Amino acid sequence: MSRAKGNIAEDKACAFLCEKGFEIVERNFYSRFGEIDIIVTKDNVLHFVEVKSGEDYEKAIQNITRSKLSKFIKTVHVYLKKHALDVDFMIDAVVVTPESIELVENITL
Q1: Is residue 22 part of a domain?
Q2: Could you tell me the CATH number of the domain that includes residue 67?
Q3: Looking at the domain assignment, is residue 26 inside a domain?
Q4: Deepest in the core among 28, 73, 81, 99, taking most CB within 10 A?
């Protein structure tokens, strides 16, 4: 996927999350392990969000591989340490398709 398409999907995901009552904390946090697309907060819980887009839900969600999730988790820990945070957090995904946007909370493999 091109960076432009990724940015469009991330913008849609941010708008969707804001409509659901989340507050944007940061976008595109990078570490040597990878990137966190969106960091939001709601009800005193920090949510680290991976945005995936595709022609349909299945194709998009399958792009969250074991390797990708492992790098994502390492990046989450870098973020928490860098900001000296000891808070409740979740790792989520937002799946953006031409027909819908869905939040998948607390993803694991």
Answers
A1: yes
A2: 3.40.1350.10
A3: yes
A4: 73
- Confirm whether 32 is domain-assigned: yes
**Structural domain contains residue 109:** no
- DSSP notation for 77-104: HHHHHHTT----EEEEEEEE-SS-EEEE
Residue among 87, 88, 91 at smallest CA distance from 107: 91
At 38, list the tokens. Answer: 């969106």
pLDDT digits (tens, 9 = 90+) for 56-104: 999 899 989 999 999 999 999 999 999 999 999 999 999 999 999 999 9
Task: Give the C-alpha separation, 107 to 49, whole Å.
Answer: 10
Cα angle 51, 108, 100; round to 5? 35
Question: In this structure, which amino acid lies at residue 108?
Answer: T
Q: Across the strands, what pairs with 89?
A: 46
Domain range enclosing 10: 3-104
